[in-house]
Amino acid sequence: MEPNQKKFKTIDQYISSFPKEVQISLQEIRSAVQKSAPLSKEKISYNMPAFDQDGTLVYFAAFKKHIGFYPMISVLNTLQEELSEYRTSKGTLQFEHGEPIPLKLIAKIVKLRVKENTDRKKAKSSSKKS
């Protein structure tokens, strides 16, 4: 289901390149991220939808059998127990097509990523002042 390796400029363009049922899931993820990080900015990075707030928060992408959600390894380690029912790999959480997208879990992950990025920015800023 990977699109013909077209270079995407917007998340809308990316989402519209997939079949309708996949578009719905991608849009649900997008909305959950937007609600959980309202100050974040949308972007395409590595030809995938991504959100940025003081650094990249998350990426997501559709594949033949699943949607990959990339929240960074630190969050996957922190929420390891909650994520046990999902397939994971290094830095990736996978949602099988046809299964409900765990929107509350995505919201929790995004909020953790916002906090990580904010804390890192504060630490960087205070180390420059020293």
**Structural class from helices and strands?**
alpha+beta
Element string (H = helix, E = strand): HHEEEEHEEH
What is the strand tally? 6
Largest sheet: 6 strands, antiparallel
Instruction: Give the neighbour order of strands across the main sheet.
Output: 1-2-3-4-6-5
Tell me what the CATH architecture is. Answer: Alpha-Beta Complex
Instruction: Say what the CATH topology is.
Output: Aspartate Aminotransferase, domain 1
Helicity, in percent?
40-55%
Q: Into how many domains do the coordinates divide? A: 1
Terminal Cα separation, in Å?
51 Å
Weakly predicted, low-confidence segments: none
Domain YdhG-like: 26-113
Protein name: DUF1801 domain-containing protein
Pfam families: DUF1801
Could you outline the blueprint of secondary structure elements for this entry?
Layout lengths: L10 H6 L3 H17 L4 E5 L2 E5 L3 E7 L3 E5 L2 H6 L8 E3 L2 E5 L6 H27 L1
Antiparallel strand pairs: 1-2, 2-3, 3-4, 4-6, 5-6
Helix pairs in contact: 2-4
Considering the chains and any ligands shown, give keywords for the structure.
single chain; 130 residues; alpha+beta; Aspartate Aminotransferase, domain 1; 6-stranded antiparallel β-sheet
Describe this structure in words.
The chain is of the alpha+beta class. It has a single domain (11-123), classed as Aspartate Aminotransferase, domain 1, CATH 3.90.1150. It is 43% helix and 23% strand. It is built from four helices and six strands, in the order ααββββαββα. The protein has helices at 11-16, 20-36, 73-78, 103-129, and strands at residues 41-45, 48-52, 56-62, 66-70, 87-89, 92-96. Strands 1-2-3-4-6-5 form a six-stranded antiparallel beta sheet. The radius of gyration is 15 Å and the shape is globular. The mean pLDDT is 91.
